[in-house]
Each structure stands twice: as structure tokens, then as C-alpha cells.
Write a structure and sequence with these properties.
340 residues; 33% helix
């Protein structure tokens, strides 16, 4: 199978390229950055996905497209919105227009994200299932970090979120990821193309960037440890996330590209074994051999942060045959040992 990978020079994309090459697929990468971890068996094209002029040549003979290219992270300020929309919304639109013009009839896999959910799923002990309303500055300021029930005011209890949960994007990045899903879904419906939207949860592992304000929490903690500083954990550290290793994410992408029959719609890509942010920071400090740099729980908060997002991984297992394999402790040790 000939697979075109956008964003294939990036963190997740480069691992996907390796996995596809290992599966004897022909791989063409489009990325505006030169590859930091090039695979000698892949073909690299340094270009911007928003350039419509390059696509007619590149799409010839392509059987499947894996759209990984995106501006990631939550943004530093709202003024970043134009960059996110340009890269994520417009970049996806240009790609889809090119696929339409090329009468593409293969398979399209989109790298989406759990951020489209906003908060995860919750239940009130008294009132039952309950959507979490945005937390207020007044509650956060007094250390009331759990979302509260809109009916009775009790703290909500987190549950695993399924793909059927309503989307509720709460930052610019999340809004653009959801729009990418919508655009790809409309294209798939109109062209009869199978579209799979893989909603990655917190991806970590080798090659993850650690020197950018847009980095994920695992990367930020690793960067602190490398500076000889204790990881600083916001709120009370009890925020729950699902941390999934990048090699597992690459395997999930390969499964989505090759699944028979094709799987359409959204699929959570997660380990299915949630951890708290404090557990993550503690495990990384231990794996780095720095027990003297135990995490500092700061009580600080950011109004736009969500409290808990953990996933049901059932659909991925049932329909893609995907189950995460890399143990948390193994992944933490590998991440902590990654050279700067």
C-alpha cells in the first residue's frame, strides 16, 4: 500500500512512518520541516500542506492518507487563534480539496485528539450522569478543583469517556481539531471515502518535544528534571489523564489504515489505564534517578484547563484490534532516559 503521511517529520508522524516502513508499505511524507529522524526507506517532500500546487503530483497512486500535520498544544494566548486556524482548518481544507480533485477513493485517517471532549464523562453520586460545566475562578481559587453538579452542587465523579460523548472544545486547539473531524467527515460522506478520526489521548515517548510552551505535560516534566528542577504540578495533582506511548499510537494508525472492513468515525486511542498527573511526575522523577526532585504540588490553576479526561478504549479493541502494549513504567523509564 502506498501511504501519504502529512506531518511525518513530527513526533507521532515519524514513529508512524517507521511503523509503516516496517510493514513493507511505500511511504511518502509531506512536512514543512526537514525530518529530524528520517527513515531511509521513506520519501520526504518538504512543503506546506496549505500549498494546493503540490498536491496533483504527490497524490498519484496513493492508496491511503494519514493526516498528522497540525499545530499542536493548547496555545499560549488567544491571539494564537489565527495560526491554529491557518494550519489546522485551512491545511485540512486544502488537502481535502486536492483529494476531491484527484478523485481519491482510498482511505483517510485523521489525527484528532481527546481535547474535543473538553471535560471527560462524569456522574453525580445523587443525580446520575452529568455533564461537567466549566469550572469557575471562584471555586478554583479556594481549591475546589472537582467540577460540581449543576443540580445539587455535589462534586462530580469522573468516568471513562466514550466516542458517543458530546464534543465540548474549550480552547482554540480543541476547536480546530473538532473542525478537522467535521471537514474530513463531510468529505468522506460526499466522496464515499472511509474516514477514521483517531482521538489521541496524552501521547508520550521518544522524540517528543520538550523545549516548547506547546509541549505536553510529560514533556514539560522531563524538561524540568533535565534542568535540575522538581516538576511543578498544578491544582492538587489529582487530575486524571490517560497516557499512551507513541509506539502504541503508531500501531493504532497502521491498524486504522489497514482494517477490514474499514472503521469509520471517531475512535479513542488510549491505554485504558488512567493515571493522575502527580503519579506521572513522581514516576518520571524516579525513572530519572532523581528522588531529590520530588514533584511540587503548587495549587496553581488555569481557568481553561479541564479536570479529568480518561477514555474507554473498547471501540479501538473491538473494531481495530488495537490494545496498548507498552507498560507505563517501561514508557516512563524510556522517556526519562531520552537524550536531550
Amino acid at each position: 500500500m502506498k501511504v501519504l503521511v502529512t506531518g511525518g517529520s513530527g513526533f507521532i508522524g515519524s514513529h508512524l512512518v517507521d511503523a509503516l516502513v516496517d510493514g513493507d508499505h511505500e511511504v511518502v511524507v509531506v512536512d514543512r520541516r526537514p525530518p529530524e529522524y528520517p527513515n531511509p526507506s521513506a520519501t520526504y517532500v518538504e512543503a506546506d500542506v496549505r500549498d494546493p500546487g503540490m498536491w496533483p503530483v504527490l497524490l498519484g497512486g496513493v492508496d491511503a492518507v494519514s493526516h498528522q500535520a497540525a499545530r499542536v498544544g493548547l496555545g499560549v494566548r488567544f491571539a494564537d487563534v489565527t495560526d491554529y486556524v491557518a494550519d489546522n482548518d485551512t491545511g485540512t481544507a486544502v488537502l481535502l480539496a486536492a483529494l476531491d480533485a484527484a478523485d481519491f477513493a482510498g482511505r483517510l485517517v485523521l489525527a484528532s485528539s481527546m481535547v474535543v471532549y473538553g471535560e471527560g464523562a462524569y456522574r453525580c453520586p445523587s443525580c446520575g450522569p452529568m455533564a461537567a460545566r466549566p469550572r469557575t475562578a471562584e471555586r478554583l481559587a479556594v481549591g475546589r478543583f472537582e467540577p460540581d453538579c449543576a443540580r445539587c452542587g455535589a462534586d462530580l465523579v469522573p468516568e471513562a469517556v466514550t466516542e458517543e460523548a458530546p464534543a465540548d472544545p474549550r480552547n482554540t486547539y480543541a476547536a480546530t481539531k473538532l473542525h478537522q473531524e467535521h471537514l474530513c467527515t463531510v468529505f468522506g460522506r460526499e466522496r464515499g471515502v472511509p474516514v477514521t478520526c483517531l482521538r489521541y489521548h496524552n501521547v508520550y515517548g521518544p522524540r517528543c518535544p520538550v523545549d516548547t510552551p506547546y509541549a505536553g505535560v510529560a514533556s514539560l516534566f522531563v524538561a524540568a528534571l533535565r534542568r535540575g528542577e522538581a516538576p511543578r504540578v498544578f491544582e492538587d495533582g489529582a487530575q486524571r489523564r490517560d497516557f499512551v506511548h507513541v509506539r502504541d499510537v503508531a500501531r493504532a494508525n497502521v491498524a486504522a489504515l489497514a482494517a477490514e472492513p474499514a472503521v469509520t468515525g471517531a475512535v479513542n486511542i488510549a491505554s485504558g489505564r488512567p493515571r493522575t498527573v502527580l503519579e506521572l511526575a513522581t514516576a518520571l522523577a524516579a525513572a530519572a534517578g532523581r528522588p531529590d526532585l520530588a514533584p511540587v504540588v503548587t495549587g496553581q490553576w488555569r481557568l481553561g484547563d479541564v479536570r479529568h479526561v480518561t477514555a474507554s478504549a473498547d471501540r479501538a479493541a473491538t473494531e481495530l484490534g488495537f490494545v496498548a502494549e507498552v507498560p507505563f513504567a517501561t514508557g516512563m523509564a524510556e522517556l526519562a532516559a531520552t537524550p536531550a
